[in-house]
Structures are given as structure tokens and as C-alpha cells.
Amino acid sequence: MGVEVVVDGLSKSFGAQSIWRDVSLTLPPGEISVLLGPSGTGKSVFLKSLVGLLKPEQGKVVINGVDICTCPERDLYEVRKLFGVLFQDGALFGSMNLFDNIAFPLREHTRKGESEIRRIVLEKMEMVGLIGAEDKLPGEISGGMRKRAGLARALVLDPEIILVDEPDSGLDPVRTVLLNQLIVDLNAQIDATILIVTHDINTARTVPDNIGMLYRRNLVMFGPREVLLTSAEPVVVQFLNGRPDGPIGMSEEKDTGAGELARLSELAVPPMMPQLEVTPGMPERTAVRRRKERVLRQLRTLAPSAQQEILKTLTPEELALYGFSAPATGSWPQQAEPATAPAWPQQAEPALPQNEVADVPQQVRPTPHPRDPEAPPWAGKPEPAAEPVESSRRRWFGRKRGEQ
Ligand SMILES: Nc1ncnc2c1ncn2[C@@H]1O[C@H](COP(=O)(O)OP(=O)(O)OP(=O)(O)O)[C@@H](O)[C@H]1O
Question: What InterPro entries does the record point to (predicted)?
Fold first, then answer.
């Protein structure tokens, strides 16, 4: 199974330019997460910081107990072996054919013989559908093939963490969906922890288990996909609807007028789309079951709209097991206290320690846009405090790290 990546209080600047500050999130092991954000918000800088290519000034990135921001170079070298990175353009060497490009990390970082290298390279090329293209140069193939070759190269060292920078850039919608399907299938086969950086709405809505969003130098949120995809935060609604009016503008520092926000508040949050399933014949994604257990443990801390979407994914047996009653009329949720601590009948692992449950608020970031009358216009209209939805949204958006 992939390893957990814990990011705690990370801040990065270039000179006087602050890129993002105090970013905290945990990439759950073996799950697929997406980091969204408008252009220039520092998504690629975040990926490079995770793999130790850039050094944040503050905070930690802890992987297998090693803080890669402060560890000695030799420890960083070891931790980096856990990673496979697919850069935007595939980052292939133009003068090498695909076979040699994909074999490169094996020849550089291992002592494997050429026959073993050949076996591994062909296995990975088959996984990404590139068998037969071994002798092609990167300049002779399409953008989609280059991405797949980059993915094959990212896989040859059997990574436990895969970082993917904008898999959709330069691809048509069909190739994008095919690449997304490939990533989901790969996750089923190797159970690696995957983080995808993108601004493609369709990818965000269909691929990940968890979604985060960077905006104005802050991590607006990070958590189960249902939270962001049902959020009514103006910046999220604008982004998911791909609208010109709203807090996001050509300039990062755009001010939003009241009229724009009013138009935005009339927009519906797009309905949830089903998550991509693995291709028939592939192994199941074991991360799906682990995630379900994890998310159900934190269910009551989530916004009601997210709770509803999560409960809809449960079978009647799971509803009964977790102490939720099925809706009589199709309205959700009818949530009761679970009779017992959640436990799957087939669960082999011991019950989680208490503090693991207490970790949940670390996923819940305070909003940089507090909804009060003093807030700037882009923060949106304050809603009546008595509304249960609002109070629950405050619980999701307004919680400080460490608060229960
Ligand atoms: N090595 C660097 N030195 C100085 N500034 C940098 C460096 N790398 C990135 N930046 C700056 O950091 C900011 C964020 O860049 P980044 O590429 O991470 O954004 P992004 O969110 O990935 O954008 P896009 O979605 O357009 O790819 C930009 O202003 C960029 O100019």
C-alpha cells in the first residue's frame, strides 16, 4: 500500500513573493487526491515541495517518519525513491527513444541487469498501452502518448507515491478521460498514494477520493471529494461552474462586486458526478473501502450536503452496520448515533487508536474568507446564523486546526 504524506504548516515564498502559507493536509495512503486551483496559485510549486525539489521556509512534509524539509540529503535521496513523478510535458529526453527514456531511472538508480530492465520497461509500457512504440522518439508521438510514456517512466521504480502535474494539459477531452481511467486502474493495481494537480473540472469531479483547493495563497479546503463538490463557497462555485464572474479573476487580487456575488449565489452547485470505476477485469481499488471507513468516522464533522452524498454511496447493509437508517422518502440523511464504533466484519486491522480519530480536524482548514459583516466583498453574504446548514458549514470551513 502507498504511504501517507503529512504536510504541516508549509509556507513557500520566492523572495518577497509569498506563494502559499500554512498549508496543512494529509494524503491518505493509497487514495487518489486532487489539488485544484486557478493558474499561478502554486500547485506545481506544491508538488515540487513534496518531493524535495523546492525547500519551503516553514513547515514539514513527513513521509515514513522523515521530515523531508529538514532531513539530511542522504535521507531525502532514500525518500525520493518512493516517488514517481509525471511532469506536465512528460519531461522525456528528446534524443532517446521511449524504451531508453522509460529505462532511464532503472539504469540510474538500480544495479539491475539489462534483461531485468527490459522486462520491467515492457511491463510498464504494457500497463500504459505503449507496447510497440519502444523505438519511437518523443518528437514522433502525440501529446497523449508522451504523457503515457512519462507515466510509464514514473512507474518503473514501483513508487508508493505518484505525483501527476496536470495530466489533462494539452490533451483533448477524450484523451484526458482515457488518461484519468488509466490513473484509476493503476491505483487499483499498485495501491499507490496519488496526488494530481489540475484545473480540469471534469478530472476533479470524477477521479479523486479527496480534493483540495489553493486560492490566494491559502489552502481553502482539503477533504473528502463530497465536501468540495457540494460546497457553496463562492470561489468553489465559480471554479466548478467555470464562470467569469466571482472572486477568481485574471489577476489573483481581483475584488468582487456585490452584483457578481449575487449572480454567483444564484448558480446551482453542479450535481455530483459518479467517480470513475476501475475497468472491468482489473483488481478492485482497496482504497475505496479504507476511505469509506475513514470518511464515515469523520462524517458528523462534514457539511450536511457532503454527508448526504456520502450516505448515498452506502449499501443498505453498510447503512445498518454504521447505524444509519435508510430514507423512507428519498430524503437524506436520517442519521442516528452509530450503535458501536464503526468496524467492518472483514476488517483485519485492529481498531484505530483514539488519536487517529482526533486527527480529522487537520484535514479541515480554516477558510481565508470568514463570512461576517466585516469580511471583504468576495467572502460572500453572511447567512443567518440560525440556519443549520450555515452552522454546519462553519464547522467545516471555520474550524481551526486542533479544534474538535
Ligand atoms: N523557481 C521559481 N522561482 C521563482 N518563482 C517561481 C518559481 N517557480 C514558480 N514560481 C512562481 O510561483 C508561482 C506559482 O507557480 P506554479 O507554477 O506553481 O503555479 P500553478 O498553480 O501550477 O499554475 P498553472 O496552473 O498555471 O500551471 C508563479 O507566480 C511562478 O512564477
Answer: AAA+_ATPase, ABC_transporter-like_ATP-bd, ABC_transporter-like_CS, P-loop_NTPase
